[in-house]
Amino acid sequence: MLTVCCVWLHKHKQRGVGALAVITTLLYLISIPLVGDWLLRSLESRYQPPAAVSGDVIVVLGGGATADTPNVHGKGHLMGSAANRLLTAAQLYHSIGAPIIISGGQVFANTGKEAEIARHILLGIGIPDEKIIVEGQSLNTTDNAKFTKQILAERAFTHPILVTSAFHMERSVGQFTKYNMTVLPYPTDYQTNTRFIFEWNQLWPRADAFYNSQLVIKEYLGLMAIRWF
């Protein structure tokens, strides 16, 4: 692919210079915190944690796990977003006492079984086993909604509280709505500040800013898929 691009640029020098300038500018923009954070904030601001929380079950979505890393309560760790989501679910449990559905399977052969790892963590911090429901089949957000709906029907839950990252909430609500579920969104795992404060270092390219930009692209593509298919 790189060779083809080089040949094309050599044959079309004038147009190639313009195209290269556009590509370079776009790469720069999505690699700086000023843009990456702004894009992510556009998703994170869609939902706010409710002032009053009520529901008969807490549904927390997985967000990545390692398989064999040593942990206090066994092996396997949740990734940053998944850990933040689980922490919020645990806090909600201590607030309202509703059982927790952990939704997340083993996405790849070298990743952990998210729901099982999360279960061991919850047990380790004192949440009773009978209050934990493991949904370990999901490989994506669509699966989260599909398999959670089955559990809600089997156990007669009617008012689920949905816990996931703020940037992921709109797509998650969209999928759950598509499966005819009404949820109370409880966003967490915020990656940006609510209030924007400009700093000059926000103009320097950074890997985390590029990562935030690609997260946003993924979420918007997911939203388009929900609406079109």
Automatic annotation (TrEMBL):
GO terms for biological process: Gram-negative-bacterium-type cell wall biogenesis; peptidoglycan metabolic process. Signal peptide: none annotated. InterPro entries: Cell_Envelope_Assoc, DUF218, Rossmann-like_a/b/a_fold. CDD domains: YdcF-like. Keywords: Membrane, Transmembrane, Transmembrane helix. GO terms for cellular component: plasma membrane. Pfam families: DUF218 (PF02698). It comes from the Bacteria. The chain crosses the membrane at residues 17-40. Residues 56-222 form the DUF218 domain. This is DUF218 domain-containing protein. It comes from Sporomusa ovata. The lineage of its organism: Bacteria, Bacillati, Bacillota, Negativicutes, Selenomonadales.
